[in-house]
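To whoever picks this up:

The nightly regression suite flagged Enoyl-CoA hydratase as changed. Nothing in the input moved, so I suspect the structure step. Input below, exactly as stored in the fixture:
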Amino acid sequence: MAEHERVITDTSSYSGISVVAINRPDRKNAVDPLTAKALYEAILVFEDDPKQKVCVLTGAGSSFCAGADLHSVAQTNDDTPGDNLQPINGRNLGAMGPSRLIIKKPVICAISGYAVAGGLELSLLADMRVVEEDAVFGVFCRRWGVPLIDGGTVRLQAIVGLGRALDMILTGRPVGAQEALTMGLASRVVPKGESVKEAIGIARQLIAFPELCLNTDRQSCYYSAYEASSFQDAMSQEFNAGSKVISQEAIPGAAKFSKGSGRHGSFKDHSKL
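Regenerated output under the current build:
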């Protein structure tokens, strides 16, 4: 694809895996309205393509995303807000693009350099964050009076807990890769330059598992975290959704196990059912 494209999607290099990269390395992948729209559309295309099973979200160059492009924000007119600054209406476009979505299929972020402000919020869309050893998270927008309007106050506390989320949100301090791993914000820490490779490896592992079961359990986790009205509601949703998987994948899977596959915790033979 042409280098000037704000978002580059690669669906051909890895079977079943979409690699989506924010492509503004000269601005540390800061997101302006056109980039927000391009990223939003790229995620929707991934969701709608049945051949694409897992998305790896990353940034071109040395940083994942430095947040909203403040040069663009400075030119915003309150009287005529852009398409990405409209009130929430279901799954519509957000300030950073796909930030109002609970994405329908697994997403892994491959993070190098800065994932700060709106970039931190984008990283929280993912199920997992593979973080390079020199990466930095933070609510750096605290210094400029730019609020979190892309799910930062919602998702961060669900991932790391309210106390740690408030520490990051109120102070705006930088959080390095090892501290992020300790608090559960990072899923893996890898050497510099290795995040995409590691994310691809994890994506391939996920693709090898029974798909309906994996996505059903994933959806139940998100329902419990963000939508359930009570413990009983969450439990009911989990049971009702999981019951539909039993005949399609659980019974055939149990039959494979009974014949000797996967004994003693082995994951060597876990091909699709």
